[in-house]
Amino acid sequence: MTTSFRTLGKTGPTVSSPGLGLMGMSDLYGPADEAESTATVHAALEAGVTLFDTGDFYGMGHNELLLRDALRTRPGSRDNAVISVKFGALRDPDGGWWGYDGRPAAVKNFAAYSLRRLGTDHIDVYRPARLDPSVPIEDTVGAIAELVEAGHVRHIGLSEVGAETIRRAASVAPIADLQIEYSLLSRGIEAEILPTVRELGIGVTAYGVLSRGLLSGHWQADRSLTGDFRAISPRFQAGNVERNLALVEALRTVAQSKGATVAQVAIAWVAAQGEDIVPLVGARTRTRLTEALAATTLTLTEADLTAITAAIPADAAAGSRYATPLMADLDSER
User: Fold this and answer.
1) What is the pTM of this model?
2) Which residue range or ranges hold the NADP-dependent oxidoreductase domain (predicted)?
């Protein structure tokens, strides 16, 4: 067992920390090896990971099917797995993006398809991937609450929404957690969003804890990004990527003093920001998973935390966390 456990907010499930984010196994980060992806899910299960995060639009359903098949080949695994699903993103056959749909009828339609693809009778945590600006969040959350009442969903989550939206959602039904980007390079939630969820008893599942690979300690500035959405990410553009990797090298010095890797320190730092925060790691291979899970054995002292912040101060990242058109979809950035 190489994981620890935390509870998502006052009303959510107890899950492994870290959890495993599956997106890169199907989409957006270039080609993935399906056999290795499945083996990585199996290795996560064997290591005690229980939280598996997916989205119905990752590979247009492929990611859910991959998770279903991986769980089916390990008898009893579904009973121990907490499946978190994001919904609402609209795609086209070429992989394009066409906004978000949070209408109540759409919520129930998306859920029906996810339940079938996942081969399960319930989704443990169900959340809109982004706020649909044309639909009140109360309507979207109300529809999920009806799915909870019917037994199709266990808990309600949110994703990338700001403090006002969080309060409005929580006025309708209990919210287990907010999924949002949080890392040494993305600390925007600390100002208003994190205090709000803590006031309301809502947990945080933090994605992007390695800033899409920048904080992995393995990234090279000249890496090819063909077929990879990071090709349009500001932090990976020439000029910015070199500045960001210089921060990583400063963090590497701290990591080496701990006998740890850069990735392990970055993951441990997120976990150290509060017992109400569960990091999600996007490992696509067993090697990267093993490295990430070892972060649970790393204890950061106050001196370590000071040194880490000195290496990567808040707001030190060069470039925004998404390209401008994608930033416009983030209620959390308004």
Assistant:
1) 0.96
2) 19-311
